[in-house]
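ok new one. same drill as before - structure tokens go in, u give me an amino acid for every spot. 307 of them this time. try not to just spam alanines like last time pls lmao
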């Protein structure tokens, strides 16, 4: 019987697991569930006889693909697939997909929620500031960036975006000002919200040069990946600019040093929280299961990322 493994260190909400099971078993496949596993070897062992796999930020590396003799497809239930070794998967003819857009609203809501939290001094009783009238720079205008703009407009923020891969007119029809350069975005906007993927070009690309361009009251919001931030630049900017605030969905590696010196000027989630809603889990998890079914039944390769 065709076996679909759901392997999640950070489990989906129960309703999402039920939804995935309905799709998988409805298609006549068997479902295996591996949650909160402590060792990578547990994932490798569980994947060894699976035909298809659903993961979140779980590490799908060459060792996983080497042991998974039956695997035909792996779907990252979510947007970023920097946790999957695409080359290793391709070398075994394994199709890799993501589920773009399915968990974007949860991430966008978190970005705005964290902005309010820090603008109000972490609700510590002191007088804070408002988002209304502030300029928000959206760095990359994909699914999440677009939703961030929509919510931010509700707060009365003025939205700007930089995305060299999206036509300016497509950005501007959302009432968002499209800028030509990343430098313009950082120099015009007090708030910057990051929505770039983590890849060889973007890793450590958010550096002190960009951070120093931001106007007074600079707040950098990272719901993308911690790897896109240059951590030395982060420390330098904290030291040079007493107005600088950094908010991130999961902490940078140098969080102890930041916590020691810059209390009240940062907020880090304890684990990656962007997509941690039952709605996002249901949307992304069920989409992943449906994509597996469509691929196994009709060879549908929509959303394949290792072409
Ligand atoms: C994504 O890339 O979709 C988000 O970062 C969510 O990741 P998660 O599924 O590990 O919460």
């Amino acid at each position: 019987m065709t076996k679909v493994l759901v392997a999640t260190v950070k489990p989906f909400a129960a309703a999402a697991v039920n939804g995935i099971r309905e799709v998988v078993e409805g298609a006549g496949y068997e479902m295996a569930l591996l949650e909160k596993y402590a060792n990578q070897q547990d994932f490798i062992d569980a994947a060894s006889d699976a035909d298809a796999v659903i993961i979140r930020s779980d590490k799908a590396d060459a060792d996983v693909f080497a042991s998974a003799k039956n695997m035909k497809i792996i779907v990252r239930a979510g947007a970023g697939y920097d946790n999957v070794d695409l080359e290793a998967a391709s070398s075994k003819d394994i199709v890799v997909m993501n589920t773009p857009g399915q968990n974007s609203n949860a991430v966008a809501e978190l970005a705005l929620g964290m902005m309010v939290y820090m603008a109000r001094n972490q609700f510590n009783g002191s007088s804070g500031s408002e988002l209304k009238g502030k300029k928000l720079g959206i760095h990359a205008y994909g699914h999440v960036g677009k939703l961030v703009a929509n919510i931010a407009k509700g707060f009365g923020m003025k939205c700007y975006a930089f995305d060299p891969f999206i036509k300016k007119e497509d950005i501007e029809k959302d009432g968002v000002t499209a800028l030509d350069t990343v430098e313009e975005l950082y120099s015009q906007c007090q708030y910057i919200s990051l929505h770039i993927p983590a890849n060889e070009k973007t890793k450590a690309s958010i550096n002190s040069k960009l951070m120093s361009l931001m106007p007074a009251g600079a707040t950098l919001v990272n719901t993308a990946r911690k790897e896109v931030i240059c951590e030395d630049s982060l420390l330098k900017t904290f030291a040079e600019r007493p107005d600088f605030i950094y908010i991130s969905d999961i902490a940078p590696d140098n969080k102890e040093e930041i916590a020691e010196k810059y209390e009240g000027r940062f907020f880090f989630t304890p684990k990656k929280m962007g997509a941690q809603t039952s709605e996002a889990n249901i949307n992304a998890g069920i989409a992943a299961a449906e994509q597996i079914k469509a691929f196994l039944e009709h060879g549908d390769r929509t959303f394949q990322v290792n072409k």
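The pocket of 3-phosphoglyceric acid is lined by residues 10, 56-57, 78-80, 103, 272, 274-275 (CB under 6 Å). and btw Residues 3-102+277-298 form a domain with the Rossmann fold fold (CATH 3.40.50.720).
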